[in-house]
UniProtKB/TrEMBL annotation:
Top-level class of the enzyme under EC nomenclature: hydrolase
Keyword terms, alphabetized: Cytoplasm, Hydrolase, RNA-binding, tRNA-binding
E.C. number(s) listed in UniProt: 3.1.1.96
Native species: Buceros rhinoceros silvestris
Name of the protein described by the UniProt record: D-aminoacyl-tRNA deacylase
Compartments reported by the entry: Cytoplasm
InterPro entries (alphabetical): Daa-tRNA_deacyls_DTD, DTD-like_sf
Nuclease keyword on record: no
């Protein structure tokens, strides 16, 4: 941020969090639980998809990313589904607080809310997983023909 390094982590997860107008405490709790328990790391024997960030005692870097709420209208991005700044900052801080309560506070890092940031991610795998709230997600097994 402004040429200054705000945060960094070693092995772990980089969470880009897009907060929607429709997000509530329920979605926040779901995201915290999923992020901390998502099995994306290998175990000691090298078996993939076996261990969570908590199992491995890895770090989590969180970045508020309102642009994830973008809807394209032609070639122009529209952000009307993103939560307004003041409300989103409170939600984001609550999200960080819940992550720290559920895990080890010293392993949860973040950037600077609302700032223009350069985020350097080394994607190991590469693995990128989109995680949405239960209400937004559609399970293909539950779709009737």
């Amino acid at each position: 941020v402004g040429g200054e390094q705000i945060s960094s982590i070693g092995r772990g997860l980089c969470v880009l969090l897009g907060i929607s107008l429709e997000d509530t405490q329920r979605e926040l709790e779901h995201m915290v639980r999923k992020i901390l328990n998502l099995r994306v790391f290998e175990d000691e024997s090298g078996k993939h998809w076996s261990k969570s960030v908590m199992d491995k005692q890895y770090e989590v870097l969180c970045v508020s990313q309102f642009t994830l709420q973008c809807i394209l209208k032609g070639n122009k991005p529209d952000y009307h589904m993103a939560m307004p700044t003041e409300q989103a900052e409170c939600f984001y801080n609550n999200f960080l607080e819940q992550l720290r309560k559920a895990y080890k506070p010293e392993l949860i890092k973040d950037g600077k809310f609302g700032a223009y940031m350069q985020v350097h991610i080394q994607n190991d795998g590469p693995v990128t997983i989109e995680l949405e709230s239960p209400a937004a997600a559609v399970d293909p097994k539950q779709v009737s023909e």
